Amino acid sequence: MGFLIPANSKKSLLIFGLFSPFDLALFAGGIALSTVLLLVLPVSQLAIAILAIAPALITGFLVLPIPNYHNMITVIKNLIDFYSNRQRFIWRGWCVLSGQTKQK
Predict the structure, then answer these.
(1) What is the pLDDT of residue 90?
(2) Which of 24, 40, 49, 75 is the most exposed place for a label (fewest CB within 10 A)?
(3) How many Å apart are CA 19 and CA 6, to the nearest integer?
């Protein structure tokens, strides 16, 4: 017997339907680090100001929700997994004997 699971059942586990607690903690850490850097560094120069807000921008990019994935962290993990692990594709078509000999 199969059960019908609603398409949005996973969204109810997320905060605002988009973010996991880890995502919000990561973004809050980036915001906090940027705030500290803005208070400590002399932001009169543009390059230093960009450096000071870089942690917030980077973590904001990482937790950005995108379609078909949870967020950019998931996409980056999948890309690293795909390119670093050995891929083995098993194909059995009509023209392949699959290592078995034909019995007569």
Answers:
(1) 73
(2) 40
(3) 19
